[in-house]
């Protein structure tokens, strides 16, 4: 890493040391305060950075190892013609990396854009390549958009107009001359990466309801179409609107630049690269970036932090994933959705419980994240008992905005509703890719009394005996050929979870009764949320209600449930803390680089959950109306009717 940075400095000196260019777009950009920065300022600076062969070489080597040896979907991603509701082209990561290696670049921007495009193509937000270098400025359109259906006809409307043009609720007819919905879908298909389901990608591109669990209010989040951390393709968008009682309105809106690196971070190209792009070296004492990259994607992200801990706490802290949703700048700014038809019953700072006024037999458990701990499980059980005392007999589990969290909660959330002492009933069979490096890592992990990583064999259960492993199952792999390509995987094992965190003596009118439980989702229930939903549905026959997408089409009830994710830095950190030589070097640039490290199977399936579209189809469908798009309580009412009136 130190060596890398020396080489890089030398390159920079060569590139910029000699004749000082008369105009350096990054000097201009660096001198402006954010309100005066335009799309062009950012674009010109980004595109003025020359390609660095040394950065490219390390990046290629590391990403090749990450995709080739760790990514559990390397070969599953080659699957052609995935059934509906998926529409997601096959991805051959190794072939794409070879193409990048052979391509001639002049701009650094284009090189990293190719890695971003490759990561996005998986349509799995767990898989990510985002350099801070080209994602630190934030771009925003003045309009929030939503799709609703009236008399069977779906149309795009303005949710909130911040341009002062009085466009609220106007129908958006076209964007850049193209049918507006088709334009957004085309954008989402190429750039969103939110889901393998195009209807879920549409939902993720538009406004969504969001519960702020800490401040106890409901608001809306910007969709991915409106708010970008990557450079938009053009400086502005042309819109045509149909507003009530007005002629067709035409408008062009520039992308506003609403955020960026702090003033003074850089003064020219050289300092832009040094201070915004290049990762701090180990010797400079900086911590490799963990939370600095901006994540404005439509779906929140999860990861598994490397945890230093004592073995006896292993079970509780293992295989954690935490959502970075709360850290991102797309959080809800203000309460914009009031809930007149719902009685607020109780809340902690992770979840909330409501009762519907128009149908008091219906209660709602709001689960906006899976990043909660034993105190929240105790709270949920208390809140559900309160609902039962109020004669609530049916429950909506509202997963709105839930992008995942701790994988043990996949097991524990369903256990609140369906008590069991069987640790494997609410667990998925999982498998890792196997390489000599990961075998060395797991052997060291098993031997270490002080370090536990995500890979620790002891935290998994043998699928036959249900006993925790005391031996390293990574040393006993199987060969598997998927889509014509062979690789070694571990045998399938179950995840473990502390069932005792759920007080199983507490029961409710809906305990063990799947007909009294439903799940509300817009398909962006991701990662641990998706896995928990799959347990409710595939193990217990709960029927989920999926809202949004396209009328007449099926919609996924969850996305990227394909298990656990780690950043390249975290994997390297695991090797370092166990004193095992890592198979790759840290990436030269700061950013967020993630791969999925193990995949899961639903029940006894032979196809990975992530690549099994049939497992994703929600039993019930619902479309937003102009009313439910603006009122979350009315959406609950519509969900109750959909789930229980037929
Ligand atoms: C934009 O620039 C003008 C002068 O060029 C300055 O007066 C103004 O304060 C700047 N605005 C912001 C938000 O920096
Ligand atoms: C959330 O609640 C827990 C337990 O009640 C408390 O420890 C924590 O500080 C709270 N967090 C916030 C952000 O209020
Ligand atoms: C949660 O677990 C911790 C130990 O990890 C314990 O001290 C605490 O009492 C538990 N809280 C609840 C509400 O069960
Ligand atoms: C699980 O236990 C069974 C029965 O003892 C054994 O045959 C099998 O090899 C074990 N699985 C793994 C992955 O070690
Ligand atoms: C998997 O196949 C490779 C090459 O085909 C072979 O070297 C390896 O031993 C096989 N592994 C197992 C577990 O059979
Ligand atoms: C479980 O809940 C029951 C009923 O509320 C209560 O009496 C008991 O103390 C609880 N058990 C634990 C371990 O908290
Ligand atoms: C729920 O089902 C479990 C497992 O079948 C059973 O042990 C438990 O007694 C049932 N509880 C209720 C309240 O029906
Ligand atoms: C929706 O999914 C169900 C179940 O998989 C299937 O039977 C039905 O044909 C699908 N409908 C459409 C419109 O694709
Ligand atoms: C790694 O090496 C360091 C320094 O030699 C040592 O202090 C530490 O205990 C080792 N860690 C493990 C997990 O072996
Ligand atoms: C999976 O298959 C095994 C062996 O055939 C069987 O015992 C088990 O019940 C099946 N599990 C599920 C969830 O279908």
TrEMBL record:
It comes from the Eukaryota. Residues 283-304 are annotated as: Disordered. Keywords: Signal. Residues 1-17 form the signal peptide. This is Tail specific protease domain-containing protein. The lineage of its organism: Eukaryota, Fungi, Fungi incertae sedis, Mucoromycota, Mortierellomycotina.
């Amino acid at each position: 890493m130190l060596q890398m940075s020396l080489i890089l400095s030398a390159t920079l000196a060569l590139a910029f040391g000699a004749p000082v260019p008369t105009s350096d777009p990054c000097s201009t950009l660096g001198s402006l305060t954010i309100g005066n920065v335009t799309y062009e300022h950012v674009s010109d600076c980004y595109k003025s950075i020359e390609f660095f062969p040394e950065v490219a070489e390390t990046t290629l080597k590391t990403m090749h190892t990450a995709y080739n040896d760790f990514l559990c979907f390397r070969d599953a991603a080659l699957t052609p013609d995935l059934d509906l509701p998926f529409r997601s082209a096959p991805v051959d990561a190794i072939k794409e990396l070879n193409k990048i290696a052979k391509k001639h670049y002049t701009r650094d921007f284009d090189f990293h854009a190719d890695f971003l495009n490759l990561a996005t193509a998986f349509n799995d937000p767990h898989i990510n390549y985002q350099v801070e270098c080209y994602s630190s400025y934030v771009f925003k359109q003045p309009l929030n958009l939503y799709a609703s259906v009236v008399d069977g006809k779906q149309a795009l409307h303005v949710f909130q107009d911040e341009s002062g043009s009085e466009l609220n609720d106007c129908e958006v007819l076209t964007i850049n001359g193209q049918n507006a919905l088709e334009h957004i879908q085309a954008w989402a298909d190429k750039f969103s990466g939110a889901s393998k389901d195009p209807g879920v990608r549409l939902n993720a591109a538009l406004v969504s309801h969001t519960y702020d669990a800490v401040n106890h209010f409901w608001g809306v989040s910007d969709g991915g179409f409106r708010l970008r951390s990557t450079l938009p393709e053009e400086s502005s968008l042309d819109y045509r609107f149909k507003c009530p009682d007005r002629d067709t309105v035409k408008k062009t809106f520039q992308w506003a630049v609403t955020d960026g690196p702090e003033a003074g971070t850089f003064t020219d190209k050289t300092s832009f690269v040094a201070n915004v792009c290049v990762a701090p070296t180990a010797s400079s004492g900086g911590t490799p970036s963990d939370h600095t990259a901006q994540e404005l994607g439509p779906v929140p992200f999860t990861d598994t932090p490397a945890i230093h801990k004592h073995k006896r706490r292993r079970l509780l802290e293992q295989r954690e994933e935490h959502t970075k949703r709360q850290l991102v700048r797309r959080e809800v700014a203000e309460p914009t959705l009031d809930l007149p038809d719902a009685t607020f019953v109780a809340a902690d700072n992770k979840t909330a419980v409501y009762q519907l006024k128009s149908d008091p037999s219906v209660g709602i458990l709001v689960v906006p994240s899976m990043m909660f701990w034993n105190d929240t499980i105790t709270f949920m059980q208390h809140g559900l008992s309160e609902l039962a005392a109020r004669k609530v007999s049916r429950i909506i589990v509202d997963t709105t905005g839930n992008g995942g969290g701790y994988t043990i909660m996949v097991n524990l959330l369903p256990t609140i509703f369906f008590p069991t002492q069987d640790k494997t009933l609410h667990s998925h069979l999982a498998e890792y890719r196997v390489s000599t490096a990961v075998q060395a890592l797991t052997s060291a992990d098993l031997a270490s009394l002080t370090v536990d990583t995500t890979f620790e064999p002891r935290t998994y259960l043998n699928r036959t005996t249900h006993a925790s492993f005391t031996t390293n199952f990574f040393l006993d792999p199987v060969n598997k050929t998927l889509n014509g390509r062979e690789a070694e995987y571990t045998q399938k094992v179950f995840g473990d979870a502390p069932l005792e965190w759920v007080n199983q003596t507490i029961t409710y009118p809906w305990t063990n009764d799947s007909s009294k439980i439903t799940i509300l989702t817009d398909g962006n229930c991701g990662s641990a949320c998706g896995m928990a939903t799959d347990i409710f549905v595939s193990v217990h026959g709960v029927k989920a209600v999926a809202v949004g997408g396209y009328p007449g089409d099926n919609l996924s009830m969850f996305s990227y449930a394909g298990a656990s994710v780690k950043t390249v830095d975290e994997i390297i950190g695991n090797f370092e803390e166990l004193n095992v030589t890592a198979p790759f070097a840290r990436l030269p640039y700061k950013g967020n680089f993630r791969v999925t490290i193990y995949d899961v199977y639903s029940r006894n399936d032979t196809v990975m959950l992530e690549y099994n579209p049939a497992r994703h189809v929600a039993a019930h469908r619902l479309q937003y109306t102009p009313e439910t798009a603006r009122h979350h309580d009315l959406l609950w009412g519509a969900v109750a009717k959909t789930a229980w009136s037929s």
